[in-house]
Amino acid sequence: MRFFLFSLICLLLSQLTFSQFEYGIKGGLNFDSAGKITKLNDDVISNGSFKSESGLNIGVYAQVNLLLFYLRPELQYTNVKRYFEELDVTSSRIELPVSLGYKLLGPISVFTGPTLFYNLSNKTNADSFDIIKNKLNFGYHMGLRLNLGNIGLDFRYEKGGSSMIAETANLENTDLRVNQIVLGLSFKIN
To answer: Which CATH number is 21-188 given?
Structure first.
């Protein structure tokens, strides 16, 4: 009898734990605004902002639900294209946002947390413009999520905490931090 009762309790606890964990795939559009250049070098003085096209992201997520809260780490690949006057820069990076969320009512939740950005590559149409060298960048994000069954929609704002440029680059009054709005779609697998 004790063995049966112990087995039943273990079975119920494992079901309870399993139902609080979910994982899935995600993707979305990035609307990146990566900073301002005030002075490019001693010879060329310019004043303006990088213009950006929408980029794409694709990845996976896991989520642990804890009553009204949840913890959701994500791993995603992001590709964004920016341009400034005659310069085109295409960046690809791996992003690791970790969200702490609060379920407001029903399917609506808010979330915030840190983000780690790892730059994979930066391709430009100018051979001499190779300033985006900092591989690692930390930042934060915050947003709103709507869950409709297995489908999730989210709107988030992400901001890098440090510049993407090398400290040795000859740039003055330049802010090249990740600064983006992300519209995402996720699909829960389990």
So the answer is: 2.40.160.20
Residue 166 CB neighbours (<10 A): 12
Read off φ and ψ for residue 171, nearest 5 degrees.
Answer: -125, 140
CA distance 183 to 32: 11
86-126 pLDDT per residue, tens: 667 778 889 999 999 999 998 999 999 999 989 887 776 66
Domain positions in the chain are 21-188
Q: Name beta bridge partners: 90.
A: 81, 123
0.90 surpassed by pTM: no
Alpha-carbon span 114 to 111, nearest angstrom: 11
For 132-150, b/e burial (b = at least 16 CB within 10 A) is bebeebebebebebebeee
CA gap 177, 140 in Å, rounded: 12
